[in-house]
Amino acid sequence: MGRRKISIQPITDERNRKVTFVKRKAGLFKKAHELAVLCQVDIAVIILGKN
Question: Signal peptide location in the record (predicted)?
Answer without folding.
Answer: none
